[in-house]
Amino acid sequence: MTALPQPLADWFATRGWRPRRHQLDMLREGRAGRHALLVATTGAGKTLAGFLPTLAELIQAPTEGLHTLYVSPLKALAVDIQRNLVTPLDEMGVDIRVETRTGDTPSDRKARQRIKPPQILLTTPESLSLLLSYPDSFTMFEGLRTIVVDEVHAFATGKRGDLLSLCMARLQRISPGLRRVALSATVADSDGYRAWLAPDGDIDQVAMVQGEPGADPNIAILLPEGRVPWSGHSGRYAAEQVMAEIELHKTSIIFCNTRSLAELIFQDLWKVNTLSLPIGVHHGSLALEARRKVEGAMASGRLRALVATASLDLGVDWGDVDCVIQMGAPKGSSRLLQRIGRANHRLDEASEAILVPGNRFEYLEARAALDAVEAGELDPDLFRPGALDVLAQHVMAIACAAPFDQAALLDEVRSALPYSALTDETFERVLHFISDGGYSLKAYDRFKRLTKDPDGLWRVSHPKFVAQHRLNAGIIVEATMLNVRFKNGRNLGRVEEGFAAQLSPGDTFFFAGLSCEVMKIDTEDLIVRASSKPARIPTYGGSRMPLSTNLADRVRGFLAAPDQWARFPDDVREWLEFQAKRSALPRPGQLLVETFPREGRHYMVAYSFEGWNAHQSLGMLITRRMEAVGLKPLGFVSNDYALAVYGIEKITDPAALFSPDILEHEFVDWVQQSHLLKRAFREVAVIGGLVERQHPGKRKTGRQVTFSTDLIYDVLRKYEPSHLLLQAAWDDARARMTDVGRLAGLLDRAAETMLHVDLDRVTPLAVPVLTLIGREKVATGSADDHLLIEAEALAAEAMRID
C-alpha cells in the first residue's frame, strides 16, 4: 500500500532522498480513503506528504477535472506551493495541471477555472467560499477526491476556520467520497483538530499521523553588551549586534511582533549597515507588488536579511535562510517554533534562532519560551462555537448557487463541528436576518436578500443580491485604510485612516523603508514624496499579540523559584533579589498588588500576567470604578505582565476594585459607551452581509462603511437590542477585543489570592510598566531618549535599600 509510482520513486532517487515514514503513512491512509491529520516539524516535507496520495493517484490513473483542493491561510503560501509543486512535476515529466485561485487571480482565469478546472487547485477559504456561490459549483466539485488544509492551526479556531468548516460540509454533500487532510507543525490539541476536520466531528474517522522528529533547534538569547534594559519591548537597543549576526549568516529573517516595529527595526538596521548588505522589509500593509518583489528576491538569494512580521510565519519555504532573529519576546512557544522553522527548512539540520528580549520581564519570557520548546510544550488551542455572522455569509453563498431546503441545509451545517450544537431557533433567526434584516429593518427592501417560496425552498430575492454577495464576501475586515502613493501613482501600501487623520502636509513618517513626506490627503489616498527629513512611525491597530497562558505560568514560576535565578544574567537576578527584599514576589496563582506614592500621585500596580489585551480592558474598568467611588483616577498603563493605575487619592482597599461584579456593571457600560461594540458591530455587519464594502465599479471608503454601520447600530440598540448581529458583536467584543475570558478568571480568584503590599516608594518589579506612562507625553522623535532617562531614574529609586 506504500509503493511509490515509478516517476515519483525515480524523482526521490535522483535527489538521493528517501520518502520519510510519515510521507508513506500519509500515502497509505490516502489509498485507504481515510481522513488524516499530519503533525510534523517544519522542513519534514509536510506539504509533499499531503499531496503524495494525489500525485500517486494521478500518475497511476490520470483523470480530467478537479481532483484535489489545497487550502492555505495565505495567498503568498499558495503561490509558494505552486512553485514548489510545479518544478518537481516538470522534472518527473508527468502531466498534472496545478493552478492557484486567490483574490489576485485574473478574472478571465477564474472564469475558465470554473468551466475547465485544473487537477490540483490551490486556494484560500474565502476564494473557496466564492466558488461555492456559483451554480456550476455542483459540476466543478462533483468529482473532488481530496481537500488538503495546510497550516490548519493558523485559522481552525477562528472565523476563517468557521467558514472553511462550513465549506467542507458543503463539499462533502456535493462529493460524498471526499477525503479531508490537514497539516500542521504546531498543534497542542491534536484530538481537537481531528474533531474539527472530521465530518460530523467524528474523531475516529481521522487518522493521526505523527511526523519523524527533527533535529532540536539551536536557540540563544542575545544579551546586550551593557545591561538588559528596564523598559521597551522591541529589542531596538541591539541593532548593531543583530547586524553583526546578519553579517555572519548567509540569509536571516528578523521577525517583529507588529508592522510598525518592523519599519522601525528596518531603519535601525539600515543605519548600522556599514557593509551596505541588501536587506528588505515585508509586512501585510505593503502593496502586493512590493511584497512579491521582496519574496522573489529572498527566493533567489539576493537578500541577506528580511525584516518581517506574522505575514511570513507560515510555510514559505526559503531553504537558504540559516538564521531567524526574534525582536522582542515571542509571546508563545508555538509561534516561536513556527518562526524558528523558517531557518533551514530541513528536518535533519538544527534551526538556528536568536531571541532579543526588550526588557527584563521579556528576558524571563524568552527564557520561559526556550524551556517550553525544550519540553515540547505548545500553546493551548481554544476551540469555540461557530460565529453567526460567518454562518449568515455562508448561507447567502449557498443560496446564490441554488435554492435550498431549510432542514437539509441545517443538517449540513451541523455536520461542521463549530456549528454542531446550532439550535433550530438560532438557525431560524439567521435565515430571517438574511431575509429581512431583522424586525427594526424589515421595512427596507435592501435588506430582503432571501425569499421563501410557496414550495418551502429559500432563494435569493433578486439577482442584484448575488452580485452584491460575490463582491463583498470575506472574513477579514481590516481597519479602515488609506493608500500611500507617490504623486506619479506608484502605490507603496496602506496606513490606517486614524493615523492619516493626524497628519498634515509637510509631516513625515517611515513606510516601506522610506521616509515619506505628506503632500496631500484625499478621500482614499495619502499622497507622499520621498524625504530625507526625520520621520514619525505609523501605528497599526489590532497587531498586539497576547502572551500565551503557558508562558505566563512559566514566568510566574521563575519569580517564585530563586534556585532558577542562577541561570539569569546578573542584572536580572539582582532585579528579582531586590524586589524580594523591598516588597514580595508573587507565588504561582497569587495576585500581587503594590500601592505606593510618587511625585504627588498614588499608584497601584497589579502583577496579573494575563496579557496586554486583558490588562487594557481591566484598566478601563478599574478606572471607571475608581471614578465612581471618588478615588479620582488620572490614568493607567499596562504591558503583558502588569497593570498600573494612578490617581490623586490613595487606594487602601484594592480588593474592592477587583470584585467579579465589575464584569456585570462597569464592563457592560464601558463596551456600550465606548467604540468597542460599534467597532465589533461594523465587522459583523460587513461579514454578515448587512453592509456592503463594494458596489459594482466602486468601493466604499472605510469612512462610508463606518458611517453606514454606525447608523444601523444606533437604530438596533434603540429598537432591537436582541438583534442577531448585536449578539454576534457582543461575542466578538467579549472574546477577541477584550480577552474577557482571561479577565473573568483573574477577577474570580482575585479576592482569595490577592497579596496587597503597601510601600513608601516604587519597587523594582514596577519599573518596566511605569516607564510606559512617559510614552504618552513625549513627541515620537525624543521618546526613546526620554524613556531611557525616566527608566534609569525610576530604577535608581526602586533599587535603593534604605
UniProtKB/TrEMBL annotation:
One Gene Ontology term from the biological process aspect of the record: DNA repair
Coiled-coil stretches: none
Keywords carried by this UniProt record: ATP-binding, DNA damage, DNA repair, DNA-binding, Helicase, Hydrolase, Isomerase, Ligase, Nucleotide-binding
Membrane found in the keyword field: no
InterPro entries: ATP-dep_Helicase, DEAD/DEAH_box_helicase_dom, DEXH_lig_assoc, Helicase_ATP-bd, Helicase_C-like, Lhr-like, Lhr-like_DEAD/DEAH_assoc, Lhr_WH_dom
A molecular function (GO) term: ligase activity
Helicase ATP-binding domain: residues covered: 27-197
Domain Helicase C-terminal: 238-381
PROSITE patterns recorded: HELICASE_ATP_BIND_1, HELICASE_CTER
Family to which the UniProt record says this protein belongs: Belongs to the Lhr helicase family. Lhr-Core subfamily.
Protein name per UniProt: Ligase-associated DNA damage response DEXH box helicase
Native species: Sphingomonas liriopis
